[in-house]
Amino acid sequence: MITPTPAPTEIPQPKKTALGLSENLESVIEQAASYYGLPADLVRAVIWVESRGVITADNGQCFGLMQLNKQYKDAFIKGAGVQNITEPQYNIMCGCW
Which residues pair with 16 in a beta bridge? Predict the structure, then answer.
């Protein structure tokens, strides 16, 4: 009788959300939505429609998860009080601003 070989143990992967974002960015979505009085599901929907959750999305005119227009970069930085809107967490905050 042949004894079956046990299946290899899978390497744990970081948990991803429905959008494929890390739990850390999911937390940023929750915080930004709460801060600006928006439903978190609305923020997730905008991210899905604008970038399909691709952090590096760039169509030449807009970039990031929230597809912020590059023309208004300085206004986003000043208005939302962030440092670099190309970073995903700041991109989300600016998109909610």
Answer: 22
pTM above 0.85, yes or no: no
Are the CB atoms for 83 and 90 separated by under 8 Å? yes
Residues 43 and 96: beta-carbon distance below 8 Å: yes
Greatest C-alpha distance within the chain = 72
Query: Does residue 29 or residue 6 have the better pLDDT?
Result: 29
Report the SS3 class of residue 68. strand
pLDDT at 64 (0 to 100):
94
Question: Tens of pLDDT along 55-78?
Answer: 999 999 999 999 999 999 889 888
Distance from C-alpha of 55 to C-alpha of 34, rounded to nearest angstrom: 21
The torsion angles phi and psi of 69, rounded to 5 degrees, stand at -70, 125
Residue 52 contacts residue 66 (beta carbons within 8 Å):
no
Q: Give the C-alpha separation, 68 to 45, whole Å.
A: 15
